[in-house]
Design brief:
Largest sheet of chain A: 4 strands, parallel
CATH superfamily of the largest domain in chain A: Nitrogenase molybdenum iron protein domain
Low-confidence stretches of chain A: 1-10
Distance between the termini of chain A: 16 Å
Shape of chain A: globular
CATH architecture of the largest domain in chain B: 3-Layer(aba) Sandwich
Low-confidence stretches of chain B: none
Strand order of the largest sheet of chain B: 14-13-12-15-16
Largest sheet of chain B: 5 strands, parallel
CATH class of the largest domain in chain A: Alpha Beta
Oligomer: heterodimer
CATH topology of the largest domain in chain A: Rossmann fold
Largest interface: A-B, 57 and 54 residues
Number of strands of chain B: 16
CATH class of the largest domain in chain B: Alpha Beta
Distance between the termini of chain B: 42 Å
Order of helices and strands of chain B: EHEEHEHHEHHEHEHEEEEHHEHEEHEHEH
Strand content of chain B: 15-25%
Structural class of chain B: alpha/beta
Strand order of the largest sheet of chain A: 2-1-3-4
Helix content of chain B: 40-55%
Number of helices of chain B: 14
Number of strands of chain A: 10
Strand content of chain A: 5-15%
Mean pLDDT of chain B: 94
Radius of gyration of chain B: 22 Å
Number of domains of chain A: 3
Mean pLDDT of chain A: 89
Number of domains of chain B: 3
Order of helices and strands of chain A: HEHEHHEHHEHEHEEHEHHEHEH
Helix content of chain A: 40-55%
Radius of gyration of chain A: 22 Å
Chain lengths: ~350, ~375
Amino acid sequence: MSLNPLPVNSSRLGGCTLTGAISVTSHIRDTVTVVHGPKGCSHHNASLLHAICLDDDRMVMPSLISTALGESEIIFGGEEALRSTIRHAAGRDVSAIFVLSTCIVDTIGDDTCWICAEEYGVPVIPIPTAGFLGGSFQDGMNNALIALAGIAEPCPATGGINLIGEMNLEYEVRENSAEISRLLSLLGLNVNLHFVHDTTFSQLSLLGAARLNILRSPSLVPVGEVLKEQFGTPYIPSFPHGLSGTLSFIRTVAGACGIDGQEAVSGECVRQEEMIAGFSDLSNKPVSLDHTLPCVKEIPATEELAAVLDRVEEIQAAGELAARLRLPVSSDGNGISLPVGSAIGTAGTRRMLHRWRRAIHA
Amino acid sequence: MPECDNPLWPCAMTGAASCLAGFDGITVVIHGSSGCYYYPTTLLHAPLEGTFILEKEIIFGSEDRLREVIGNLSGSGKRIAVITTCVPAILGEDIRSMLEEHDVLLVDSPGFSGDIETGYRKALAMLAPSVDPATSGVNIDGVCRFDPFYCGNVLETQRLCAMASVPVGTIFSKDRLERVHHAAAYTLGTNEDFSSGVGQSLGGMLGFDQIRSSFTRIDEVIEGSDCRPVFTELDAQEERVVQACDKFLHRYDPPSTAIFAGSSYARFAAETLTRYLDAEICCIGTRNVAGDSPVPMIEATSLSKVQDLIHTHNPDLVVGSSFERSVAGNAAFVGLIPPLRGQVRLYPTPLAGINGTLSFVEHVLNACIDKRP
């Protein structure tokens, strides 16, 4: 049971632009992220990143520096505090400094871009974020990726594939990444760049070298479009969900790269059959699946539609899986309630099946 | 330098929420965006509400949205408390008059106004706690939902009070709302950093010396109390601590220790480790303003400051939060303050009371033994 009542209007629940941008910039190891705002905003995010790092068995925290605005800066302006903090950060051995604003800073009218344009001896890259004034978590993530794309130059092709917008705050981000790498390897392809997951600033220069970009979710289509325009790289709008989604993904990647993918598809099909056979004990149990879709505004934003699309794919993948296992799905919610979440590739589907078995045996 | 590298302590808004969410009978509303709402909600594990304001409310005013949310919440029989976050706090809206038809408690505690202790105190002051001469016994204060030991501290202090036949008055802040105005005349503290200032303090509950002193005072001022069972248990359990630490010292050198906490918990840890383990306290970094201590304390509210202190002193043992653990290298680690990420915590472990000291020393000894070759 959730203890936290939330309003019906989900457009209010988009999260913080700052957090979305930090989820990207904090994954570029040799850089510093300056958060222009009160200390609390940085602490909230530092604490979140800390938890994610521990989940990921990484003990080293990314570096966030707060301009630590207090009442006096809120009244008289925080630009001098920002300048001083950027100078302090530039004194470290870093390849770049990202500057992220907060909602209070946009409200008082600090000109963050102007301060960032001064000379500090190291690239200073402002990213448009302003808490809720800047949009949602997803907007922050997209803005950060687009800002980073802006500093990458065209470069020789490597023949590899870029993974775009991996969800760094997702508990199973590494497992999903590994699954996509495995599926690409079936076609003899490898990952050119994780844009952006656990990388360095100089590696970002490889952004334009890929033959194909694979977006983590359809919400990243604006980023895919920017990259397509900038480098001419085509994109696939989402990581694959479920069984047939995974097979279809292999075919699409193969088609986009001009490779014959039939053998890879056949091999994956066998793998899926063997996996399904391992869960035959679940057959014939009456179940219900969570079909809840995200609430959207009357006139939904593109990003909200993308989130709905992603969810629909998850639900369709779960329905297909239930049918393959011959699980009677109750539409009135009377069966055993099974979790329906992100099941990326065959490996993600297997992990969801283990959760279904746990639910059925509970 | 005003800047702060990876700030380690929450803001005043979170402090206000952690105080008010402790009272049954209050509905806490965070007046701000979803980003500001999520952090205290996940941190405090409390059913908070939010206005989840959008840009249009900043431009055209938040009155309609605030009235919509408060209107939906009113009628539940609970007092509604609205906590302002940074942006609403500077808009200059007269929120009090906007909500005058509702009995709303307004706490102006934006993040930029200070740290968690500031917000906690401001929120408690807004509740206007008072002593009721008809209430006997002692209050318990220093209880903050942010503290991983808050629940254990309450249970342990209640246990010792029951042993001494002392009724418990109001618990600040983990009680029914109406109890705020019926506090007892005396108070026991579990964490001075979040003291209530209500009633006459009889002392603290951190460490055997404080407990002994506090229950001596209880014996003097609370009619009908009988603290002998507490003293008997204190003596017996202190002897166990002495024996366990002596056994450790037969085989190992005392750990040089770096402590990071609020000043109250830091002082407890330093005194306990010095007294029973002859530990060298090589540094104490406090999250809040450093109080009086025999060992010098300095403020350490950023990760870089913590790193500097640990690298400078190279301690055998680090006591603090999981932030400290992440930069502690090979040193043994014991958790004392939040966040304590990366570990499952289900049991309400205390730090206050007799069991609190037993638990702390037990964790220290086990951590140090585990790290020995």
